[in-house]
Amino acid sequence: MSFDNIRLEKGMYRESGKTFSQVLESLDPSEGYQGTALEGTDAFQRQLKRFGIRARGIGSDTVEKFFSTFESAVLFPEFIARVVRQGMEEDNILPSIVATVTDIDAMDYRSIYSVPTDEEKNLMEVGEGASIPATSIRSKENLISLRKRGRMLVASYEALRFQKLDMFSVMLRQIGSQIHKMQLADAVNVIANGDGNGNGCPTFSVGVSPISGSSGNLSYDQLVEFWAQFHPYEMNTMLVNTATMVQLLQMNELQNPLTGLNFQGTGKFATPLGAELLRTDAVGDDCIIALDRRYTLEMVRAGDVCVEYDKLIDRQLERAAITSICGFSKICTDAANMLEI
């Protein structure tokens, strides 16, 4: 079927187990456009072309262009969802702390976990005919609750009809960025305090064995001692807020020229201990949360970015909720530690 002949309707948003874009792709597969001028576009982008809607750039159309026909208006919620998703992905550090992502179709989720003892972490030699040591994997006692995070889009069609889509996208990306910040705060809270199953991360304090020094003062020696608590895991990620990051950047050991060049060239800061240093205000003052991102956190999502399409199509904006539902679960409890300065 040619993309020019697809009948667009609101029911395409309601197909179970499929997003609007996936429904479009099933009707107009992108594989059929290889070797043509439309190669590299997806089904939604081809629909924008069908109705002559230019969504970005200096010559972008106005919001009004989406409402020139009923069928083109059906595309508007998906446009909003895509731009909000772009905002969520800008400066997104969740992929740097999440070990795996699980998509579900429910509001509650029971994950699994493993807390091996020191003896279980070692692969012992097994004699002939002897039993093989076991590592237990169990279902968590309490369900992982997912949280709906979002923003209400409040605007009349009259207020936005002549606004350029490029300008409107800036506001939508900001909504996406706010949703991401709230999800990141949820993730940091689960790493530090657990997911309701008594699995908060171990906390160490400067000046309290095995960390030397005195409370309130942080030196490179304490970082090394903190790093040593991760065996057999690897401390490859550190989360700090702005004030703590300033303290770290002022250490002589972290002013290595090669480290500085990497920070200046990429905006990413790796410590001499090999851990990537990430800044987020979700972490409190005088605190460092460090983890082995390969084993610490599971992100659980119930669907993609959701937009209330009925209001956007039939009532031309007014009020529409933009939401994303997700939660976080601890996988290996001792793969993350906290240091209080």
Task: Characterize the largest beta sheet: strand count, sense, and whether it forms a barrel.
Answer: 6 strands, mixed
Give the helix level as a range of percent: 25-40%
| Rg over CA atoms | 25 Å
Shape: elongated
Q: Please provide the ordered H/E string of secondary-structure elements.
A: HHHHEEEHEEEHHEHEHHEEEEEHEE
> Can you tell me the number of structural domains?
2
Number of helices: 11
Regions with little confidence, pLDDT below 50 for 5+ residues: none
Give the topology, please:
Elements: H1 20-27, H2 43-50, H3 70-74, H4 76-89, E1 100-103, E2 108-109, E3 112-113, H5 118-121, E4 138-139, E5 144-145, E6 147-156, H6 157-160, H7 165-193, E7 203-205, H8 220-227, E8 237-240, H9 242-249, H10 257-266, E9 269-270, E10 276-279, E11 287-291, E12 297-301, E13 306-307, H11 309-314, E14 317-330, E15 336-340
Parallel strand pairs: 1-12, 7-15, 8-10
Antiparallel strand pairs: 2-5, 3-4, 6-14, 8-11, 9-10, 11-15, 12-14, 13-14
Helix pairs in contact: 4-7
Describe the protein.
- The chain is an alpha+beta fold.
- It has two domains: 3-91 and 149-191 and 307-325, no CATH class; 192-299 and 331-340, hypothetical protein PF0899 fold.
- It has helices spanning 20-27, 43-50, 70-74, 76-89, 118-121, 157-160, 165-193, 220-227, 242-249, 257-266, 309-314; strands at residues 100-103, 108-109, 112-113, 138-139, 144-145, 147-156, 203-205, 237-240, 269-270, 276-279, 287-291, 297-301, 306-307, 317-330, 336-340.
- The strands form four sheets. It has a six-stranded mixed β-sheet with strand order 7-15-11-8-10-9. Strands 1, 6, 12, 13 and 14 form a five-stranded mixed β-sheet that branches. Strands 2-5 form a two-stranded antiparallel sheet.
- The longest helix has 29 residues, at 165-193.
- The radius of gyration is 25 Å and the shape is elongated.
- The chain starts with 19 loop residues before the first helix and ends with a strand.
- The mean pLDDT is 86.
